[in-house]
Amino acid sequence: MDDEASIRALHAEHGGFLLRYALYLTAGNRHRAEELVHETIVRAWRQAAARTGKPPARPWLLTVARNLAGMPARRPTLSRAGVAGNKWN
Fold it and tell me: What is the pTM assigned to this prediction?
């Protein structure tokens, strides 16, 4: 399979799900979400040989997308409104 076909295959298999996740990560910014999906697919294609025999690709792709979006892995457990005496209340 040539490079273009490989990228198209990755996009066909994971593109829709990645776009929905990227829209969530970018608060609905369609342009930014599409860029995020593109970069995630390119990184997956570059790492394809290194991932042979590894766990399923989808969780890894979601991690790549989240990292590219700059979203921390964990969200704070306390909201501003949940902290007594804060200046935002």
Answer: 0.68
